[in-house]
């Protein structure tokens, strides 16, 4: 096999392998992260929106990123687009190297793509960054295609400025790459391009314009920090920062050019035949190692729960939790909400090792309010608190962009509350999107149509469940809000299950007993399992059981299990939580004895 | 044959376009459904074009603006955007006269001409610069905040401060001293924050809290001399309402009143202005600088007694020679008598009026739907409830034009959530007229923006700093401490 064939086959194999790895990883292990990116933006298909994005550095590629991200609501599209753009970084890098150094395979060309792929594992890095890096590398390819020195020079100057304005910080990579290319040409180290006339001046000009352009815009055009004026907000959601890995990615293509410029001539074909597969294997395993260690699979599960709540797929949430109990606050919140929506809190809550804050995420003004935080309030009928948390989420996104999911939810809350003018404002924004337009148009029909709202399957119920008196939000006394819900609509079974669950989680037996009589009005066929377990236990705390507690029927199965539990507990189980957990971990008794509350 | 069809189609087109001319029309006795509501308003001669749009689904719209000697005709699909040069000329040639505006719209194939309305051009100009804070109407968390200066004779806007440049810190109101752009201040919170004071373009950063104060300076006003500022210091607590039509209640757990001497960085107060029995807030100097007006309410346990927390207007003397607030407070407006609660006091530059907001209770009227402006004649004590000015949603955060003929205020009248900036004219009899909203280049802007226009303040000139200066001040300069 000659060198060319060998290189071609190796190149094809490496590309195919890389593409498949990307596809499999994003498709099977990390797709929820991608899907949620769509919920975190509000991409408007309007000329004004494009115009606004063209008015600042990196805005064009942010627009492109958002354009493609809007399709991420379809998992397959999210996986395909992400894979495509990451692959483009590597493909364009190979083109640069092959065009300049006349070889078919340069495995190091995979490094920038692998690097950005690893960055994308972090939810704060943006797809627009991958597109920007790919486009800047394609810019280098375009530059290399300009055979005539003058054309090349003109395109160099224009592209530096254009890359800066359109793509943001990756212009650094572009500018450094073409500077190195010209230096190599100047010293005949590589490439078959003609030297530029007055090459030193032009190379200096490239460097100068690369430095001066952002400074000029910073001084006269942009209202942004100096660092952001260089980098833009196209890559990282916390735009005033430049994470080191991102800087390394910007420097990676120039570094690879430098490496090949010096190293290529030193290695013979035979040595390369050995070295390339070794390097390929190293890269492959290095990338795999990076994926495994940098990916946050726990966060992926959390996001999966959040995404399922968006779809109101309660059965799947419960099913997922039955396979593996969620441990994160979002997963747990999604689970209790799913149980509440399906009226199973009263029978299954303690099957999932609950904790005291599982019903609501405590209000915290630091960091981003999770997308899911408002959901239990929404479904319970506490629309004002749902609105408050929607806005808190909107206001706390790291990049200041409006998550479409919150816009939609806020509009729904406003429709339910009869704040039609505000709802119309938010629906107006949604009408300018590709995928929410239909929904928004439909929602517009509900504005000021009280009967239609009341008949709506979700909105009608929530409207009916809303509180009718006013009080202030207080997380520590959320039971009062739940009681207010019940006062407004005594048939609000979800609110009832939440109240009882809240008191049971608080181990507040007095309040549990206080509200137990309402169980008869809620349409249960029998006393729900959790209530039975709680009641049978509470009865053991009385010297003399009050007569009114005997009206609730406790099944024999529950009585027997309590006896077994009591026996095990007395026989040393109290000091063996693991053993007790295995046998009784899904009972309320286990929660009472082995879950410590702050005030205990 | 083909030519015949083309000729036929051409004639059809000509006929159709004939029908679309405003000549073939029906006449309506209704005013046109325009937004913003610019029907029959008094406008200053130097205001930017009052661009508007049609609220109903018309295909085309034509507006004819007729002055004494000149008429402008503007066409659009749904929006009327008036060329600024023609507008300026029209206004300058029609001082103290009415412009008659006739709107015709093509709807369902028929042109309808609506009842004409008027724009009365008033020769008393309004101060040409307006600063306001652009902020999403959130709860406790904020994201992007900008303090912006708009030239209201055009549509040009300049950013005076951007929290993106200041580590995301919260920024409060930007206020001028006597509508003079060469003396102004704003608070920026955060680790490197302080009160940013602009005096003739020289910027200073002041830490307004000394060891005896309960907090940093909050609501304030600059003395006519420019040397002093009076502030309340407030310990602010937000609460979120559960009920659908309510939103947010903000109250002061404690609040005091101080005067700060910018020349010596010295704070002065009186014991009764800094004790715990009374809550003092929203202080302002009188136009002559010899008095301080402020809101005061007896302390109550909060939030339980929030609905009985009602602020009165008090007045004390102020001695600028010795930087000393007076020791005796007079009640100018008694909350118990009027059964309301006052906030946001603003004295008119000519000293005649006191403009303030009255809500049912509390000290944060921007989320009180019932909050309305009232105007007190300081010479007669008479109160005008400004029926032509107020709307059903919160009207507050007002300030005066330097000639006292105009005032600007923020109102949530459109949807109850988003504040917009309105201007109202006060004639020589003291009568306030129907307000109009700050005109925008694109009249649909108010529909799509998710920003509230907050704390509008008028000034005679352009402020001599911008956001980059504030960034430098914020990040590079040390705060001056007060004694």
From TrEMBL, chain A:
Keywords, ordered alphabetically: Membrane, Transmembrane, Transmembrane helix
Domain of life the protein comes from: Bacteria
S-adenosyl-L-methionine found in the keyword field: no
InterPro entries hit by this protein: DUF6057
Residue spans crossing the bilayer: 12-30, 74-93, 105-121, 127-144, 156-180, 200-221, 242-262, 274-295
Protein name (record): DUF6057 family protein
UniProtKB/TrEMBL annotation, chain B:
Organism per entry: Draconibacterium aestuarii
Designated name of the protein: Uncharacterized protein
Pfam family, any one: PD40
Organism superkingdom: Bacteria
């Amino acid at each position: 096999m000659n060198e060319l064939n060998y290189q071609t086959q190796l190149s094809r194999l490496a590309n195919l392998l890389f593409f498949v790895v990307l596809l499999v990883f994003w498709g099977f292990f990390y797709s929820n992260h991608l899907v949620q990116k769509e919920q975190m933006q509000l991409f408007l298909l309007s000329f004004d929106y494009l115009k606004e994005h063209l008015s600042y550095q990196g805005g064009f590629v942010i627009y492109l990123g958002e354009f493609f991200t809007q399709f991420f609501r379809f998992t397959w599209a999210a996986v395909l687009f992400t894979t495509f753009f990451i692959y483009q970084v590597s493909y364009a890098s190979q083109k640069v190297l092959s065009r300049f150094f006349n070889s078919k395979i340069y495995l190091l060309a995979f490094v920038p793509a692998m690097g950005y792929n690893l960055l994308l594992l972090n939810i704060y890095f943006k797809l627009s960054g991958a597109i920007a890096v790919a486009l800047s590398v394609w810019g280098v390819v375009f530059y290399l295609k300009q055979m005539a020195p003058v054309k090349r020079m003109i395109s160099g100057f224009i592209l530096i400025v254009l890359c800066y304005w359109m793509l943001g910080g990756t212009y650094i990579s572009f500018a450094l790459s073409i500077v190195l290319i010209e230096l190599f040409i100047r010293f005949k180290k590589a490439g078959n391009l003609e030297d530029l006339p007055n090459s030193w001046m032009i190379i200096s000009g490239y460097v100068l314009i690369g430095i001066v352009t952002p400074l000029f815009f910073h001084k006269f055009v942009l209202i942004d920090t100096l660092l952001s004026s260089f980098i833009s907000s196209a890559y990282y959601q916390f735009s005033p920062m430049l994470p080191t890995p991102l800087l390394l990615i910007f420097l990676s293509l120039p570094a690879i050019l430098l490496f090949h410029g010096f190293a290529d001539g030193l290695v013979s074909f035979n040595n390369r035949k050995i070295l390339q597969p070794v390097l390929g294997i190293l890269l492959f395993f290095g990338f795999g190692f990076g994926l495994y260690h940098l990916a946050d699979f726990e966060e992926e599960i959390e996001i999966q729960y959040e995404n399922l709540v968006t779809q109101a797929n309660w059965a799947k949430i419960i099913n997922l939790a039955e396979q593996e109990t969620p441990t994160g606050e979002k997963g747990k919140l999604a689970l209790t909400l799913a149980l509440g929506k399906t009226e199973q809190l009263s029978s299954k809550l303690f099957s999932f090792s609950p904790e005291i804050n599982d019903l609501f995420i405590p209000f915290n003004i630091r960091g981003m309010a999770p997308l899911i935080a408002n959901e239990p309030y929404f479904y319970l009928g506490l629309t004002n608190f749902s609105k408050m948390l929607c806005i808190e989420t909107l206001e706390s996104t790291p990049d200041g962009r409006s998550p479409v999911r919150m816009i939609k939810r806020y509009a729904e809350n406003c429709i339910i509350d009869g704040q039609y003018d505000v709802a119309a404002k938010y629906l107006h924004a949604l009408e300018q999107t590709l995928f929410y337009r239909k929904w928004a148009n439909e929602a517009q029909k509900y504005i000021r149509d009280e009967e239609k709202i009341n008949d709506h399957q979700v909105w009608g119920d929530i409207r009916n469940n809303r509180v009718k008196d006013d009080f202030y939000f207080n997380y520590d006394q959320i039971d009062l809000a739940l009681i207010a819900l019940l006062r407004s609509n005594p048939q609000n079974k979800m609110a009832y299950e939440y109240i009882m669950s809240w008191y049971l989680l608080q181990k507040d037996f007095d309040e549990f007993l206080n509200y137990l009589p309402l169980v008869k009005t809620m349409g249960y066929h029998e006393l729900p399992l959790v209530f039975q377990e709680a009641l049978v236990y509470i009865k053991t705390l009385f010297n003399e059981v009050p007569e009114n507690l005997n009206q609730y029927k406790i099944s024999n199965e529950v009585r027997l299990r309590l006896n077994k539990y009591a026996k095990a507990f007395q026989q040393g189980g109290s000091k063996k939580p693991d053993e007790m957990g295995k046998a009784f971990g899904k009972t309320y008794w286990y929660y009472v004895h082995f879950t410590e509350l702050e005030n205990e | 044959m083909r030519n015949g069809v083309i000729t036929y189609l051409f004639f059809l087109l000509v006929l159709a376009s004939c029908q679309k001319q405003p000549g073939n029309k029906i006449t309506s006795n209704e005013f046109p459904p325009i937004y913003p509501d610019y029907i029959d308003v008094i406008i200053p001669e130097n205001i930017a074009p009052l661009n508007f749009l049609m609220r109903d689904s018309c295909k085309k719209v034509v507006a004819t603006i007729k002055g004494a000697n000149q008429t402008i005709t503007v066409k659009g699909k749904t929006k009327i955007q008036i060329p600024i040069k023609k507008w300026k000329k029209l206004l300058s040639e029609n001082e103290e006269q009415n412009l008659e505006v006739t709107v015709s719209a093509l709807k369902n194939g028929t042109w309808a001409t609506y009842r004409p309305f008027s724009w009365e051009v008033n020769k008393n100009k309004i101060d040409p610069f307006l600063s306001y804070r652009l902020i999403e109407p959130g709860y406790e968390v904020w994201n992007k905040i900008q303090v912006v200066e708009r030239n209201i004779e055009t549509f040009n806007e300049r950013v005076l401060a951007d929290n993106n440049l200041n580590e995301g810190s919260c920024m409060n109101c930007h206020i001028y001293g006597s509508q003079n752009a060469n003396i102004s201040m704003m608070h920026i919170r955060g680790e490197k924050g302080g009160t940013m004071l602009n005096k003739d373009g020289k910027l200073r950063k002041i830490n307004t809290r000394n060891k005896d104060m309960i907090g940093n300076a909050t609501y304030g006003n600059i003395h006519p001399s420019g040397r002093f500022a009076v502030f309340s210091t407030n310990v602010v607590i937000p609460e979120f309402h559960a009920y659908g039509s309510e939103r947010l209640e903000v109250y002061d757990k404690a609040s005091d009143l101080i005067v700060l001497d910018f020349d010596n960085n010295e704070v002065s107060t009186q014991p009764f202005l800094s004790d715990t029995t009374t809550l003092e807030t929203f202080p302002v100097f009188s136009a002559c600088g010899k008095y301080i007006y402020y809101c005061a309410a007896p302390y109550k346990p909060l939030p339980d007694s929030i609905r009985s927390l009602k602020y009165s207007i008090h007045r004390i003397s102020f001695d600028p020679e010795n930087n000393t607030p007076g020791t005796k407070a007079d009640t100018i407006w008694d909350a118990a008598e009027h059964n309301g609660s006052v906030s946001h006091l603003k004295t008119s530059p000519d000293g005649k009026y006191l403009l303030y907001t009255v809500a049912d209770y509390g000290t944060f009227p921007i989320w009180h739907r019932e909050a309305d402006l009232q105007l007190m004649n300081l010479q007669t004590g008479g109160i005008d409830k400004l029926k032509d000015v107020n709307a059903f949603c919160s009207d507050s955060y007002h300030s005066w034009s330097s000639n006292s003929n105009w005032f600007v205020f923020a109102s949530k009248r459109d949807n109850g959530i988003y504040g917009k900036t309105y201007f109202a004219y006060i004639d020589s009899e003291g009568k306030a007229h129907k307000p109009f909203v700050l005109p925008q280049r694109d009249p649909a802007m108010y529909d799509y923006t998710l920003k509230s226009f907050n704390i509008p303040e008028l000034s005679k000139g352009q402020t001599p700093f911008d956001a980059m200066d504030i960034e430098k001040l914020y990040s590079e300069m040390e705060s001056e401490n007060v004694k």
